[in-house]
Specification:
The protein is mostly beta strands. Among the domains are: 47-194, no CATH class; 382-506, no CATH class. 14% of the residues lie in helices and 51% in strands. The chain contains eight helices and 24 strands. The chain has a 24-stranded mixed β-sheet that branches. The longest helix has 23 residues, at 20-42. The chain is elongated and about 140 Å long. The termini are far apart.
Length: 509
């Protein structure tokens, strides 16, 4: 018989009751959150009407929003098709069109009206610097913008008249901290500039905005420009990279830096040279004018120091003063000629002015160049021309032709003016052993055509400067021939033809 096991009684489980105070506290919290949410919905700042009004007051413009989508996590809104046109009526077509504009915040920052703005796909149309843009930023924004981020956008400047080409700056990335008039605005920007086209990166600080005089707003920072294409300027080619720092205010930005153009050239010459340099300049950010305070450039074994300005409304005109000592004339000439070698070598010193007008002509035709120069230890590289110079020097000394080394040209001085691609030489003088030459005339840089005239003052008299039967005939009449103060003959000289085929003539008088 199996005995039954008595069942043990289950232990009694007591249910813990939540304290009534905790329930009341939780209920109050839920009620507060619901009430806060309702209040937030009622005073929600990101409605189309409120955003249009706030943006319009902050920029002095009429704002139109095609669509607006509210977001609650994070709090903000996303707008599509935003347009802004200035309230001030001007002759310019200033306008801002934005594909997508997003405003974000957080619930803790929202109560203090702090927001961030993100812009994607904007086009900003403005007149060229120096003209009234129409927008006004006198009234402070009702919100405090901590950060503005812009990408895939463009800044377009429209010159007057409207037929002139516009300037387009493609903005890849732009980040501005604390924009407004309250404090400094750190910024970074990556963009593509149109003249010369290249990739530019800038980082720095924009000071407290001077609404009474924006040009006095402080600015500072650094920049780098990578391989900007110089071919945009008619007549020259190559690329340039540059780095530097800047500081001052918008109307007076002190800029200093260095530049490197490894393949610079004048288009028609076919030659490339490596140009390096450093500079100090004063930039007017309000109108784009530049004052070159000091520029040092080097190419080959020639160094040039220059100052000048690049200024004007719309297209800029460059005015430069240049100087150099102990340079090489072949370095300078190879910039402009097509020949594989320079027609002249030697040590050059010069003082010059150059003007590059804002025209569509090629560089060689539009540049206006004036210079006083001197060349020492010069040699002509064309064997035909140098041979004639050697023979002329020997005649001037009354010597027979020998196999001596090439005659050096010394004390070559003169004045030249380059206009429309033609160099006009005046008071050109040079010395070779036994003779002093005075010449004037033109050299066409484009066609390489020569047209020079002048006198050759010889040390020897004419009979000794000739040989054979001609010398025998001239001896009886030598007393009647014109002579220079050294007692030698005065012989007219003409140099015509081209660089490749020069024609030199001398006629006794």
């Amino acid at each position: 018989m199996i005995e039954s096991v008595p069942k043990m009684p289950r232990p009694e489980v007591r249910k813990r009751r939540v304290p009534r105070g905790v329930l009341w506290a939780a209920g109050v919290c839920v009620a507060v959150l619901l009430l806060g949410w309702i209040v937030l919905i009622l005073i929600w700042p990101f409605t189309r009407q409120k955003v249009q009004s706030d943006l319009g007051e902050a920029t002095g413009s009429t704002v139109v929003i095609q669509s607006l989508h509210k977001t609650y996590f994070p709090p903000g809104c996303v707008m599509q098709g935003v347009s802004m046109t200035p309230l001030q009526k001007t002759q310019s077509t200033a306008a801002v069109n934005i594909e997508k504009l997003t405003i974000h915040s957080s619930y803790t920052r929202l109560w203090s009206k702090h927001v961030d703005i993100f812009i994607d796909g904007a086009e900003v149309h403005l007149p060229v610097p120096g003209h009234n843009i129409g927008f006004s930023f006198d009234k402070p924004s009702k919100a405090i913008v901590d950060e503005i981020s812009v990408k895939n956008s463009a800044l377009l400047f429209h010159p007057q008249p409207a037929s002139s080409p516009q300037l387009r700056f493609d903005i890849h990335e732009l980040l501005v901290h604390h924009p407004g008039m309250r404090e400094e605005m750190p910024f970074t920007v990556k963009l593509r500039i149109p003249e010369p086209p290249g990739e530019l990166e800038v980082s720095g600080k924009l000071g407290k905005w001077r609404s009474d005089n924006p040009g006095q707003t402080p600015v500072s920072g650094s920049y780098s420009l990578e391989r900007a294409d110089l071919a945009v300027f008619v007549g020259i080619r190559g690329s340039v990279s540059s780095r530097g720092d800047f500081n001052g205010n918008i109307q007076h930005i002190q800029l200093q830096g260095s530049a490197d153009a490894p393949d610079f050239g004048v288009t028609r010459s076919g030659h490339r040279v490596h140009v390096t340099g450093d500079f100090r300049a004063l930039v007017n950010g309000a109108n784009g004018d530049v004052a070159l305070e000091e520029v040092h450039a080097s190419f080959g074994k020639t160094r040039v120091k220059s100052t000048g300005t690049v200024e004007g409304e719309g297209e800029k005109t460059g005015d430069l003063k240049l100087g150099g000592t102990d340079g090489r004339i072949q370095d300078v000439l190879m910039l402009f000629i097509q020949s594989p070698v320079s027609p002249l070598t030697g040590i050059v010193a010069f003082n010059a002015t150059a003007k590059v007008p804002a025209t569509l002509q090629g560089f060689v035709r539009k540049v206006q160049f004036t210079s006083d120069f001197s060349i020492d230890d010069g040699h002509l590289t064309n064997p035909t021309t140098q041979g004639k110079m050697d023979h002329l020097s020997q005649q001037a000394q009354g010597e027979k032709q020998t196999d001596d080394p090439a005659t050096a040209i010394s004390n070559l001085v003169g004045h030249v003016e380059l206009r429309e691609g033609v160099a006009n030489f005046t008071d050109l003088k040079f010395r070779v052993p036994g003779a002093l030459a005075h010449l004037h005339g033109t050299y066409d840089v484009i066609t390489e055509k020569i047209d020079m005239h002048g006198l050759l003052l010889m040390e020897a008299d004419l009979p000794h400067a000739t040989s054979g039967f001609k010398s025998f005939l001239l001896k009886p009449i030598n007393v009647f021939l014109k002579k220079n103060h050294h007692g030698g003959a005065r012989i007219p000289v003409t140099i015509t033809g081209t660089y490749d085929k020069p024609v030199c003539k001398t006629d006794p008088v």
